[in-house]
């Protein structure tokens, strides 16, 4: 099929590249010329496992193009994805300006005689499909001076559940595919597009092998509103699960229980499940915070106070700063103390700093007049470019960051950190204080080595 994807960010680029790999002809449309050039040269503009290999392969087949010219891409496409950013505004509602611009461009690029399924893949507020429809009509009217013919296009919702760091894997081997369309022909077209994934009939790429016992992928076919709501409900539930684990960790600490064992103990109940119960410095990333705020905003718009969701948010806010409280417990004043931070990205496997707990921790430490040294295996360039005014020291390696440090705080569970022996850490620090925000190390071993070790919930 001929597919256009507006927005060559995380979701758009990965979706486009995977669809091209499956045999579709895909044009990525992005306003950023440099990004387009990079993609055409086979260089991924983001750090994502397997993406470089995938781009090199599909580029060689001419099935993937990238352009800044929307109209050509639109005219000949059967399916057009909108996967542009929807960054949060100050009040928690998402900024739909990029969606608006994409929809206008789509309306202007369509030609009569064809039929288009326009798919919201960006996470947009419940009911946005209606807005997108109107904006597309505006685009068409601006070009042709009339209303678009009936049956020229329909807007569908197909939310995305990929995680950063395993984005290609999640796209090829999803737990489910959600299709929200109010017209049968659109539903049929989307089903055809995803058929290789639904049936798992494609040849698995060497760098992203198919997991064992992978059967056909369940497809939820529903109305647009329910599809939009599934995305929000999924992210709200996952972030609530983590905030729940963090709340349990705080209670475990007080009564003297071990959160790791407690969560293992509840996770074996198949009604609960073992995933997303890892207590730590709180959740971050480009989706959870933004989507939770948007859902809370929507609920309030309709006069409903979503108390559970607000608590999920509150618990997370406090959890991020728990490591700073731990430092104050150990060091008392933090003025002039040098604190080493390991890990900046919101989770391992990505250089993404969006809503990263590390940023909250750095902000709080600087506010308390501590001196901060940071190290991350992949996010160093990002922090320097995105936050050039931060008054912090950057290290070339994890161990170098410990030079002259009064304490170490671990914020991201990169494998690299786990491989460093605790004895080495103890020797390198001025004072052997280790605040383990991700429960990476064995508390007993740490204490045996004389380290003043503080984990989360144990
Ligand atoms: C998330 C959703 O998982 C994905 O389905 C959606 O499409 C986008 O948002 P992502 O942001 O890539 O994906 O990260 P994810 O792996 O879900 O982790 C989110 C945050 O939760 C990270 O900061 C991570 O450290 C934290 N987390 C996760 C925990 O603190 N504990 C856990 O048990 C799991």
UniProtKB/TrEMBL annotation:
<dbReference type="InterPro" id="IPR014027">
    <property type="entry name" value="UDP-Glc/GDP-Man_DH_C"/>
</dbReference>
<dbReference type="InterPro" id="IPR008927">
    <property type="entry name" value="6-PGluconate_DH-like_C_sf"/>
</dbReference>
<keyword id="KW-0560">Oxidoreductase</keyword>
<comment type="pathway">
    <text>Nucleotide-sugar biosynthesis; UDP-alpha-D-glucuronate biosynthesis; UDP-alpha-D-glucuronate from UDP-alpha-D-glucose: step 1/1.</text>
</comment>
<keyword id="KW-0520">NAD</keyword>
<feature type="domain" description="UDP-glucose/GDP-mannose dehydrogenase C-terminal">
    <location>
        <begin position="340"/>
        <end position="443"/>
    </location>
</feature>
<dbReference type="InterPro" id="IPR036220">
    <property type="entry name" value="UDP-Glc/GDP-Man_DH_C_sf"/>
</dbReference>
<dbReference type="InterPro" id="IPR036291">
    <property type="entry name" value="NAD(P)-bd_dom_sf"/>
</dbReference>
<dbReference type="InterPro" id="IPR017476">
    <property type="entry name" value="UDP-Glc/GDP-Man"/>
</dbReference>
<dbReference type="Pfam" id="PF03720">
    <property type="entry name" value="UDPG_MGDP_dh_C"/>
</dbReference>
<dbReference type="InterPro" id="IPR014026">
    <property type="entry name" value="UDP-Glc/GDP-Man_DH_dimer"/>
</dbReference>
<dbReference type="Pfam" id="PF00984">
    <property type="entry name" value="UDPG_MGDP_dh"/>
</dbReference>
<dbReference type="InterPro" id="IPR028357">
    <property type="entry name" value="UDPglc_DH_bac"/>
</dbReference>
<protein>
    <recommendedName>
        <fullName>UDP-glucose 6-dehydrogenase</fullName>
        <ecNumber>1.1.1.22</ecNumber>
    </recommendedName>
</protein>
<comment type="similarity">
    <text>Belongs to the UDP-glucose/GDP-mannose dehydrogenase family.</text>
</comment>
<dbReference type="InterPro" id="IPR001732">
    <property type="entry name" value="UDP-Glc/GDP-Man_DH_N"/>
</dbReference>
<dbReference type="Pfam" id="PF03721">
    <property type="entry name" value="UDPG_MGDP_dh_N"/>
</dbReference>
